[in-house]
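Quick check before the chapter quiz. The format below is the same one you will see on the exam, so make sure you can read both the input and the output lines.
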Amino acid sequence: MRRLIQAAPALFVALGVAVGCASIAEEGASTDAGCYGPACTPTDAGKDQISADVPVPDSGTEAGPPTINPLCGSGCLPDDPYSCVGGFADGGGPSGDAGAGQASAEAGLPPPMAGADAGAGVSEAGPAPAAGCFVKRDAGEPVTECAPAGTGGTAAPCVSSSDCAPGFACVGEGSAAQCRPFCCSGASACESGTYCAERGLRDDSMGATPQMVPVCIQADDCSLDEPYPCPPNKQCKCKEGTACTVVSSDGTTSCVQPGTGQAGEACPCAPGHVCSLEKKTCIKICSTDSAAAECGSGKCQSVSYLPKGFGVCVLTATDGG
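Here is the expected output.
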């Protein structure tokens, strides 16, 4: 009799996704973890720190407050548009007395909103506050600071973060710089069609190494069966040096720089593979519609975090020695 190893649905829900990071030059941001998707942040998404973005528990949501990406410093919360509604600290410096959302409650305002939901600097409660919580570098380390904010929302052009509304950061290089929602508290801060990844602050673009911050990036919505590298005679959505992979637990896909891990090897993973957060090893992606034996002696099992038509290879074993 044959039985499936790893067949339990709960295990598949526990699988995370991981790949290499895109380079800063490619709108990207490189990270030490080299991973994107639900399998990468320390607690949930993101720099796996998200970095990779991020690690989130294998079995659902962990109890307790969300883990904040260390690249976001401490004190006020960049994700929260109302984090600095109480005003500036003495001298306009970091406002570290109020925790995330505390200022909102004290001011009688609605609960904090994720950056992605802040729109173009206007919430259901009216115009966004005049001050926002921004990340800057001090003595080589990221710190937060309450400072005057602009009005730029998602994808608005910017020269520095002061052009962006509270909850947003100015990231990118040169004329390509845009305001993007912070996702310091993890991938859940990003709206559908986007994912949490690290990008360099435009404020630091003149430096050799820009300060990296986690922001919600527009996904490419590529196909997992797109060849890598792209053949000369074929048009691919993913440009040279990037491959299509799953970047969030809802199956969102985007083009990112891949890792090298093959099935059974350590993450980050090569094109055509996803990372099991539980095992921290790579698992091969397969087509649930293909008649080809892509999984050798195993089978292709559909999973909730992959787009329709795709699954992962599950091994089989013989009982009784």
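If your answer matched, good. Confidence is low (pLDDT under 50) at residues 1-34, 37-63, 89-124.
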